[in-house]
Write a structure and sequence with these properties.
2 copies of one chain form a homodimer.
Chain A lengths: L2 H4 L1 H9 L9 E3 L7 E4 L6 E11 H4 L6 H17 L4 E11 L5 H17 L3 E9 L4 E11 L14 E5 L4 H10 L8 H12 L5 H10 L2 E6 L4 H12 L1 E5 L8 H7 L1 H9 L6 E5 L4 H11 L3 E9 L4 E3 L20
Parallel strand pairs in A: 4-5, 9-12
Antiparallel strand pairs in A: 1-2, 2-3, 3-6, 4-6, 7-10, 7-11, 8-10, 9-11
Helix pairs in contact in A: 4-5, 4-8, 6-7, 8-12, 10-11
């Protein structure tokens, strides 16, 4: 069977099962969560988290993205995974695959983007590797630390918990439509800027992830960069629960709803690209989340409720519409 | 200027200078050494080391190499860098770039090679990333720990120190010549096997690196996978010293010398691919190295002496032949 036929999720399963897992010091291993987590004797009460995320010109860098923004993005993607564990990122390495006829200035601009995003979040770029590649490729790896008792996994959601999300969804998708010239909506200049920035210079929710982990009320968390729908399905698999989502509560920017109508919700669900955090929290502690919202300046929306696994993943409403497993996949069709 | 014109070393310099370095907690940053090294409060007396190393089909995987061996190699390359700090590797992640028409079985075999090499050295494969790529690409990242006082940098060599190397040099080069059918020498079957294994299933010197760090007599260390000549030049730059090398002491296997004559030494110097450690040690402590040799079962050879920087890097002998900066470079010509 070709990898294209197998599809990404199947392929990842086939790879991950080759690796020893759940042996000390590994708390979370390959394919388990947004990051791997290791507990070591030399780490007094803390865990090491580690993640790797690659980006390729043809699949990750839309036309019109600058080299600076490419560099920024590969850091943001990795920091978002670290944030999803409630951890503080510390160090970053990057392996660059560069076409031999590329300009040195392009590589320098990518490096500037990498450094700027890293330093904005107090992360040190400590190493890398360069090699020849037909296609421009950036593979980032980030490590960080989290207190053992504050670590938030994907697997902790309980029936009855509130389903929440940070910030807004759909901006990155709108940004892409704008960049491609597909939308000629009556959008305000500032809404356009916000959308483009979400796509081209995303801000990982590092301080929000840490603040949420501090509260002690968050039961599970992950990032939604592959789309809300795909993330809900992954959270469902990890926690063994279903989800009821309130469509009107999904934080799609008002202007996006106005400009695109029904399609806006679809983009927010199935497109991805927004570096927000999806999490579940104990129902009785929503006041605490208000505090985090105030502290970080980032909107937090309750978008649904955790249900039993056999209830599935669906939109609340007369039609009880199923939310499908669609989103950003690298190989093959959706299973 | 195109990256091809700039050359790899120039390019790395241009990238590395963009990143903040020598700020706490960074002890060694991008471009400084075989690994980055970070000191954290939460690590009681230990440092975190981190390295990333990528391999691409066209430049790193010779024809005839199996997928298992490709997976093995990307782990070995990263572990060798960790070993060069005297550190113990702990966890490994891999980002795979896979052509969409590749067979799933190929990816599974790569994963098996990765796991087998990692588990042989007590390392856990904890995560990864898969993506589409025209060319098969494997980017590995490894983290490990070392006691702060046992960390060995490239910068510690002193005039008068002995220059040493583990194992043998030239085997990987011979293996490549055999694979290409360029050599039809009267080699014993076992010598052929050793050479092919050095190329296709290299053994990083993890226990040797740790044992050498334990001795307290090693002043600087690095791996020689890019060739002895290039490594001597890098050690020279880091420590600000020159080297006198004894050509007859370079541990080229006897059969290789017999089969290739003069060319054997050239391969050992300029080809690379051998995962051995180059290090300097205090002159008065060579007995200690004998003990390491016995303990690890790995040959250690004294191949020269550390000289003043202005004396250069040369072969001892009547002609005092200069050792040139040539070796495995990814872009452009040798400066």
């Amino acid at each position: 069977m070709k990898v294209e036929e197998a599809g990404e999720l199947e392929l990842i399963k086939k790879i991950a099962c080759k690796f020893r897992r759940h042996y000390p010091p590994v708390i979370l291993g390959a394919g388990d969560d947004d990051c791997a987590v290791l507990e070591c004797k030399c780490l007094t009460g803390k865990c090491l988290v580690m993640t790797t995320d690659g980006m390729r010109a043809s699949t990750h860098f839309p036309k019109g993205m600058t080299p600076f923004q490419m560099g920024w993005s590969v850091v943001a993607a990795n920091l978002s995974d670290v944030a999803a564990m409630g951890a503080r990122p510390l160090a970053f390495t990057v392996a660059m695959g560069i076409p031999p006829d590329a300009e040195v200035s392009l590589v320098e601009e990518i490096a500037e983007g990498i450094e700027r995003c890293a330093s904005q979040f107090d992360v040190f770029v400590v190493g890398g590797d360069v090699g020849r590649s037909d296609e421009l490729t950036l593979v980032g790896t980030c490590v960080g630390f989290v207190e053992r008792r504050k670590l938030i996994k994907r697997s902790g959601a309980n029936v009855g918990d509130a389903v929440c999300v940070t910030g807004h969804l759909g901006n990155a998708a709108l940004g892409l439509e704008l960049l491609r010239g597909n939308v000629k909506p009556r959008l305000s200049r500032s809404a356009e800027e916000v959308a483009k920035k979400a796509l081209l210079k995303p801000m990982p929710r590092v301080k929000e992830g840490i603040a949420l982990a501090e509260t002690g009320v968050v039961t599970s968390m992950m990032d939604v960069s592959d789309g809300l729908a795909k993330s809900l399905h992954e959270l469902s698999m990890s926690s063994g629960v279903g989800f009821e989502i309130y469509p009107e509560k999904i934080p799609v920017p008002k202007e996006l709803r106005n400009a695109l109508g029904e399609k806006a919700l679809e983009l927010a669900l199935y497109y991805g690209g927004d570096y927000e955090l999806l999490f579940t929290a104990r129902r009785d502690s929503l006041d605490v989340l208000k505090k985090v919202e105030k502290e970080t300046g980032t909107k937090i929306s309750v978008i649904g409720e955790v249900k039993r696994l056999d209830e599935g993943i669906y939109m609340k409403g007369d039609k009880r519409e199923k939310i499908e497993l669609k989103g950003y996949l690298h190989f093959g069709a959706t299973p």
